[in-house]
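Hey all, quick one. A colleague (J.T.) asked me to put the adenosine-5'-triphosphate job into the tracker so the inputs and the structure tokens live in one place instead of scattered across chat threads. No bug as far as I know, just bookkeeping. Sequence used:
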Amino acid sequence: MDFAEVTVVRGRKRLLDGVDWSVSEGERWVVLGANGAGKTTLMQIAATRLHPTSGTVSILGETLGRVDVFDLRPLIGLSSAALAAQIPAGEKVLDVVVTAAYGATGRWREQYERLDERRAFGLLHDWGMSTLLNRPFGSLSEGERKRTQIARALMTDPELLILDEPGAGLDLAGREDLVRRLADLAADEAAPAIVLVTHHLEEIPPGFTHVLMLREGQAVASGPIGETLNEANLAATFGADLKLTASNGRYTAVARA
Ligand SMILES: Nc1ncnc2c1ncn2[C@@H]1O[C@H](COP(=O)(O)OP(=O)(O)OP(=O)(O)O)[C@@H](O)[C@H]1O
């Protein structure tokens, strides 16, 4: 995936401002930035849900604007709050995942095969949801919802997986469970390229390889996580003096006293 000079303008505001960014096969990216930095806007473009005002975007070898996005979308798994909000509360967990095979939220009209059902079951099992297959999505805890959404995003066996704030609203144990599962996914060579958006360094799973840091629509820094995630770039990204700690592939940042 290649972004060149990507800009999104709404009214007088530049939601994204000349962003250059490349994600290659096998890479696991974290996108960091304060509220309003443009992370979700960037993910909407990567997921072919939004077109930039200017700049060029190529995703999986196809240039946005010159390709039918409906051909691309099955190759891109997306989990986001906006997508979750479209899932009917009464929809059963298994169906939430199975229907991803059709790029549709809601299973009306769609006939699906046993094969799809088996794949959805396997994914839900992998994500710790096998005892909740028949539960309505609306009755799940936040952690269960997030895991269901990730299983759904993986259903089409995508080449790119975009997780927009998968840790939002999780309690401490739930977050740690998710981080562990995402670390396992990151370590899986067969897994797609992954892009994970977060505000919190504690949510970065071990094994993630790169970081993009955004501020006010601009890329402050991007590159391999070991050298790019440093205190100078954190200060520039969040506008705060933060002390960074890295240990065993996990990160924390707190205000310097
Ligand atoms: N249609 C729009 N018109 C004007 N401004 C918009 C529009 N959509 C988003 N914005 C603004 O663009 C900025 C970037 O939004 P975006 O959701 O991409 O940020 P974010 O980094 O994902 O933020 P958060 O961490 O709070 O989710 C925000 O200030 C938002 O209010």
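Adding what we noticed when we looked at it: The chain is about 30% helix and 30% strand. The chain has a mean pLDDT of 93.
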